[in-house]
Amino acid sequence: MIEKIGEILKEKKSFLIVSHKDPDGDAIGSSLAMYNVLKELGKTVFIENPTIPPKLYSFLEDYDKIQMVGNEKDVEVVIALDSADLGRCGIERSYTENKIFINIDHHGTNTKFGDINLINPAASAVGCILWEIFTKNSIEISKNTADCLYTSILTDTGSFRYLSTTPNTFRIAAYLLEKGVNPWFISYNIYESRKLSTLKLLGLTLNTLDVFHNNKLSIVYISRDMFKKTNTKTESSEGFVNFARSVRGSEVAVLIREDAPDKCKISMRSKDKVDVSSIALSFGGGGHKNAAGFEIEGSIPNVKEKIINAFSFLSE
């Protein structure tokens, strides 16, 4: 499969890259890494997303090339990255007719919606899968591409802290550093360059922190009014759920984000044994064992009650 994808990257002339809405560091980093590689191979490349990417990642080369999903592009190949299902990419399956459709992902809940599906749940990030595709097909990884791959891996492993981190993760990271990646520059831009308004939003969010089921479930929420008070947008809340997870004794953390009246986005994280992806699936979402999410209709209090009930087994 890796060789087949490598042949397509080398032989075809035009590509469209898409990833999931509300893109995180893995989605953006892997998309830009693929974009860089294809451009350096002399291809015609478009890169799109259903939502505006967080400016947090604007330090990456060609960040400004990411466009909103629009009219169908006349390309030979469509590549979906880091998307468990096609709907999150903002395109219809008919969009890919008469094109080669490649689906590359590491979510165990992936629906295998592509013509070619390379799904590896054991991979720490999609960036790790792309690194394998590039290196095994003798495709040069430039400094810009290395920066993007490192961003993908750094963010999806929680700075190499999550259980998904393996010895191979560090081997790939070392390879990327040898290509010129400056780890301080990337970590600074992602973790230590927050706007004052973002920190004020974090303060309001932490004030909502509550625990349930013998302190094993931590929940925080962000209302639309909180975004308005701090003059922030939804992208400002990236990573906030991890503060709830840091509560001593907590096994699961949940962030409820109100995106519209009676419509919320849920982000869930677990520390070890609890599989939050199974809960996400029950609500029509998906993700990984220790990181998953879904969208749900209802007010914050109503949604909070449903989540508390869904994790009632933590009290057993």
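Above is the first protein from milestone M3; the second protein from the same milestone is given next.
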Amino acid sequence: MDFSSPDLFSTSPILALTALALVVLFLKALLKRGEDVIFGVTLIGIVICISLAVATYGRAGTAFQGMIQVGGFTNFFYLVFMVATGLTVLISRSYLQREEINFGEYYCMLLFAASGMMLIAAAQDLIIIFLGIELMSISLYVLAGFMRKRQKSNESALKYFLLGAFATGFLLYGIALLYGVSGSTRFVVIAENFPALTADPVFWIGVGLVMVGFSFKVAAVPFHMWVPDVYEGAPTTVSAFMSTGGKAAAFSGFVLVFFHAFQVGNSKITDVLAVLSAATMIIGNVIAISQQNLKRMLAYSSIAHAGYMLAGLAAGNGLGQTGIMYYLAAYTFMNVGSFGVLSVLEEQEEKNLTFDDYAGLGYKRPLIAAIMSIFMFSLSGIPPFAGFFGKYYVFAAAVKANLTWLAVVGVLTSAISAYYYLRLVVYMYFRESESAVTTEISRPSLAALVISAIGVIGLGILPSLVLDLTQGLF
């Protein structure tokens, strides 16, 4: 394979991030107590990767003989992953120290997971998709069980690993069937032969198995059962990263495979995705109502939001793709911020994680309560916050694709979600509590929360900031 200079420069963001992960690994091996140094190097490296992603954004095309996509769509997701990773790093430092798990390997695993995410978004071949998913997943399995002395953390890692490996088996077998039928794993080749391939039942079996694999990664019903247990047991900062970066990576792969290879807008796949979307929205929102633990509530909320984005995928049009990309950018700020608030207030032995623990927070910590309220309003889809426009674009795409019933389901379930989101706001401002919140909030964590809140408000007031980046990509 010819490794040309243009190819290396076009893929520099992912190469730089992988190199950063290796540098952090070596620093951990060389420095006995170098967590502060690793923290600083990680942040500087992420800023460099963001700069490279911006610099190569306009270089639309492919690299390495068509295996890797560069510029445009890919770089948009690079930016989403880097923002999610950077914010997670900021909220992690004080959390790791408080939970007595401040080890350099944590940052290394975050970076390797982000490298896998970038590989998924850059794929033009099913094998590259598989490699990216495995790199991301294995790193997240380790991070989910990072609290080795806590039983819930060990259980979450084991459950995530077993179910994730099972879902990967579906994905890989589906890829094998698609290769057997089409003779290639390249998106371009499958798309060119799509009309002829649809006559073969084995092709549809392969498509179904690939859909199962991606549905597990995005937490779509009925492949969602791992989410609440894993999010509850994993370190809160890891839950923030999984629910944003991990979900964005899975959806980037979903979009690439089903739009570029399977022509979702012109096939029977649309009906299946629409049913998955409706079921995910309904079950995620209904079950979230009964949750008392805030991490589990946000986990079911994450399932529901996957359903909203699946509506854009089922629509199979350009507006649907744009809607998904905007939604993921907004969702990254909303969910990192929400889990970030939980992480800064959480105390050892999983204290301060229920609705009752947040009673009266508006008087004890007015700034934190105000920031959390912004995230709850945005998640529930109240204008002018970013969450409203995210839902608007994916539902508008569904209506444009003659899936009006799906948009109606989305609006109704979104109304249901307002109950459990605004319930937290009611607890913070209209309930009294005798317990005091004693956790100190570090400057990096506060900076991450403020950046997230600004992102939610900014994307809500000026949605064109994202929409302009997606113009001409489809």
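Note on the second protein: The CA atoms of residues 399 and 407 lie 6 Å apart.
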